[in-house]
């Protein structure tokens, strides 16, 4: 029982533990924000007008191009 801090020493140890936990929470939050931004940057759809060599959804891409070329005819081209 002599190794267990008491009084002021206990309060100082608790303050150090509290500070450590708060710093870990800040570090974890900043790390998660970094990975969220990285994930968003890597996997968001492109907004450029560049030609795409490989489409993961060719049907959607073709419909998008038809919609741009034939303005106002969506109901005729895509009845559902």
UniProtKB/TrEMBL annotation:
Pfam families associated with the record: DM4_12
Alphabetized InterPro entries for the sequence: DM4_12
Q: What is this protein called?
A: Uncharacterized protein
User: What species does this protein belong to?
Assistant: Rhamnusium bicolor
Source lineage = Eukaryota, Metazoa, Ecdysozoa, Arthropoda, Hexapoda
